[in-house]
Amino acid sequence: MPPAQRVDAYTFTGCTWPVSTIYCQVANDGYQQRTITAANNWNGLGAHTRLSLASSIGISTLRSDFGNTGFDGITYANCAGGFYTAVTAYYNGYYTDGYSDPGKVQVMVHELGHAQGFGHSGALPCPVPMMYVSSDRYFQCGGTAPQGDDVAGINALHP
Amino acid sequence: MKRIRVHWAALLIPLTLLAACGKSGGGTVVPPTPTSTPTPPPVSGIVGRVSASRIKDYSSIQQLRDESLAVTHITATDKQTVEYVDNIPFTVTVATVDRVLRGALVEKRIKIRQLGDGKTTVEDAVPLLQPGKAYVVFLQQFTYGPGKETDQYVPVGGVGLYLDQAGVLQRVDPHSSRLPATLSPQELERQIAG
Fold this sequence. Notes:
The structure holds 2 protein chains of 2 kinds. By secondary structure, chain A is α/β, with parallel strands linked by helices. Helices cover 29% and strands 22% of the residues of chain A. Chain B is mainly β. Chain B has helices at residues 8-21, 61-66, 185-192; strands at residues 47-54, 70-85, 88-103, 109-115, 121-122, 134-143, 149-155, 161-165, 168-171, 182-183. At the A-B interface, strand 1, strand 3, strand 4, strand 5 and helix 2 of A face helix 1, strand 1, strand 4, strand 6 and strand 7 of B. Strand 4 (71-80) of chain A pairs antiparallel with strand 1 (47-54) of chain B, so a sheet runs across the interface.
């Protein structure tokens, strides 16, 4: 029997969106399909929060190059009064250009978690939530979609 | 008459996000070059926040060693600059090289790049080098890719950094819990040998 998924370990950044439909602008930069898959992995949970790809405003996602700084994804958010006003989620192409498709997807699933208001959670050994701090969530644990703890978190974020 | 309550922050969203989304409107994204830029002016009431995904967990000194160009004992100076790539702040600290413990490094002063600027909140950040403090650093050349090397260095994985606290080496990153929290210089030298 596989070990039970730890639950209720999710954390929040202290900032979130005041609405449950969050618009997501996906850059046409070669990562588009992976980003759409990542958003759909969140949308497939049946949670109240939904990442809508139909608008040009909301979260921006794109590839950048931050070099070999040790981070394969970075999210920058502006927060005012506990609510996001702008969020950009980046792939660090220095690393992710060499990742497989699932490797790219798991980075953006993680960053879109931050973009919705999640902090890091979980600890090795596997399984770990998608909000685990490193890409060992995929390279060690095989995760590409939100796990039980992430689902509990998204439901707590927007009940 | 029905009253509609809208949180004031929600009013900011259309204006602010329209600006944020403008840069992702399609086309080729050109990799940034390492340039120094001034600190963006603060916008009243809006706080910047950075979260990041680490490439992996490091679990041993040998792993840090194997990915490093050199292992050095350094002292951080008070010369620090902040460089931005797509709004993400990176602090570049000039350090003097006290000793090279392993590998080849000829410079006596080096620049070390770390995520963060000491002002923007960085979730689970690795603390920045503190002026006057001594460290052991597992160094990699900082690069944007083949042919795009710079004159800066980074700690391996962003986490290959130990503070020399009166002869006891203390892990700087609180979250790399699989790396030794402390070790003696002798133990370090033993582990980086070979």
